[in-house]
Amino acid sequence: MPRKRELYGRRREQALLHALVADAEAGPVLMLRGDVGTGKTALLDDVAAHTLEHRPGTTVLRCAGGAPDAALPFSGLLDLLTPVLDHTDALPDFQRRALTEALGLCPPTGQTGELTVRTALRTLLAALPAPVLLVADDLPDLDPATRAALLFLARRPVPGTAVLLAARTSPEHDLPTLDLAGIDDDAARALLDARGVRGAHTAALIAAAEGNPLALTELPEPGPAPLPARLRSAFADRVRALPPQTRTLLLVAAAESRGATASVLAAARHLKLPATALATAETGGLLDVTGPALRFRHPLLRSVLYAGAPSADRARVHEALAAALTGHEALWHRALAATEPDEDLAAALERDADAIAGRGGLTAATTVLTRAAELSPDPAHGSRRFASAAHAAWKSGHPETARTLTARPDRDSPELARLEGLIAYSSGDQPGALRQLVRAAEAHAEHAPAAAAALLFMACDAAEHAGLDEELRRTALRITTLDLPPRHHAYGRLLATGPGAHHDPWAVLDAAPDELGSSRVHRWLWPLAITRDAPDPAPVRDFAERACAEIAAEGVQALLPRPLLWLADLECRTGRIAAATAHAQEALRCTRDLDQPVARADALALLARIAALHADPACRGFADEATALALPLRNRAAQAEASWARALLALARNDTAEAVEHLLTVRSTHSRIARLSAPDLALAQGAVLEAGTDGCAADPFARARAALARGEQLRRDRRAAAAREHLRDAAALFEGLGLTVWRDRARAELRAAGGTAPTPVPHLTPQEHEVARLAAQGLSNKEIGARLTMSPRTAGYHLYKVFPKLGITSRAQLRDLNL
């Protein structure tokens, strides 16, 4: 249990954190941000101790960063979840397998994706008895796979779990954040008094410490240097004053990445250090040792020790750790100890990276492959390994890392050209991405035509984003000239004719080229791209739902936002507005996780369109943000969709003049979005469409507006009886879609025509709607929980609220409703 100690000048922060944990049922999340020494760790210790004392039964899970390397995937997650590993039986089989593989608790199958591991983490926390407090200290210094999993969790709160993260700096501006400033002079004086520091120089020390509690504790006297430098200097002075053998023992502890006492002591024996060295470090107030685990009293001490040690000393310590450990950890310490190129070691690292990636550790695989490349004596092998590292970085959602790895003197290699194209596709100017992807495809065309086809497929998507129809057609037809079997050529021809070229995605999937069989991602993406604008979107929507599940299971996170957005769009066009909202929001979170501004603009534009359907003024904010992102990227598709959303909002306010203006902008910006929005332009320009007209038949929202427009026209023509029929249909359709502003407008027209509006159906939240829809398909609570990353208990709770709202008493009755 963390030790309780008095925290000077932090009563307000303590009260806020205690209240936040007390409200764990709401799933609160907070990032605690502050400079070195401001007391982040002390506050986390305090809230953990307070929770255990005042909220018995709370499960407290903790991990902390501080390792000098990042090649041990999910090591922080293992520390975090060790107390609750016996609860993994509550997970669906595929999630349990993914999580235990990632944590190294069972042999790898080579098929685990980081996204599945992150989802399993959410499901596990949801399955634990509430309340749960999750505390992660020094977030930037955790291994990247754990850090990404925790940020994924923070953006998708779990009811019953309070999440507290701490970091010196944090680029995650979308998370609730508490910035720690310095403590005031009275608190500083009380802290010094408690240390027994009094006298004439107290005022100068308080001024020099700038309210930093660590500085007040550690600085012997004021100085002219900046505060961080003085703190580092103070710790360095403490380290230099230690006996040499204790310094070496501390360096071993700093280099060992897990805080495992046994590993540190084993390496110490290889270095012939006395057994008393650890006790000296502990009694000196530098280490806390609690049985199998040890940690530095302050993370800055670990950093000072490791960074300040001569490279020869660091190499000697890593060699000792390699001798004391086994498996991946031993290999990695060998790599850190190496000072010369070594092909055998580089090849072993490359094999190890493959195994790590198969456990869902693509981020760690990037680090290992980068080190393998650095140790490669042969430049060709080094270039290939750098390209593999960049590819792993891109797939795991780290385009900046990938971009750095591709910026090498030998960048003319086909593999690095391919990576540059992929990076531009997800985060760059879209016409430029088109050119780079085509150039990379040409470099692969002769020796790897299937890889060239995959690059051309993505180039087609870049062309579609850029609104370059002729380039899209030409790029797709280039696939038909590659040295590939006829099925591949058929796919190219279908892509060339546009995203409504074929109506049946399952038939397109059955005709998939054999070359796509090895890529579960492209095997699902190609049919979806070819059929997503089919006249009847319902079967394509069902296909898209399956495709998203398959691609998520594959773990190629960089490509997940695109099918999620296609699914949300299909749901929107088939009247599943709540489901569309949920998937568009998830796509937006993914684009933030993955740093993909192109898809983020798409997600914001789609959310603007959905908000417009509800006549929600938030539409404007989404549309403006989408446009601001899309303009420099020349993402004309997102620009056009944002304009479409503004038009729909204007139509909801019955401002047809503004709607026409926006829709004419759509028509001049992007041909595909113009085609999809054509019924809205016709209605806004005064053309009354019959319900069932080709432009409206598959879209219940367009059908409802056509019925409303027809009813309004008939009422103006004094044909009240005929008007009532259309207006009733419109009101019922809007009711079913959950669009209350439009429903109320139709009802007002219906009353004006002498009709009576039906009794309203209680509104379901998006989460309730999704649970009800899946239950209507026959899924159990456990299966619903796995699909929506919630516990079976939570799924049952949602159904408990749904039944009375819908006036039903059993799951069987859900199947009779249009959900």
TrEMBL record:
SMART domains: HTH_LUXR. This is AAA family ATPase. GO terms for molecular function: adenylate cyclase activity; ATP binding; DNA binding. The keyword Nucleotide-binding applies. Residues 757-819 form the HTH luxR-type domain. It comes from Streptomyces xanthii. The keyword Nucleotide-binding applies. GO terms for biological process: regulation of DNA-templated transcription. GO terms for cellular component: cytoplasm. Keywords: ATP-binding, Nucleotide-binding. CDD domains: LuxR_C_like.
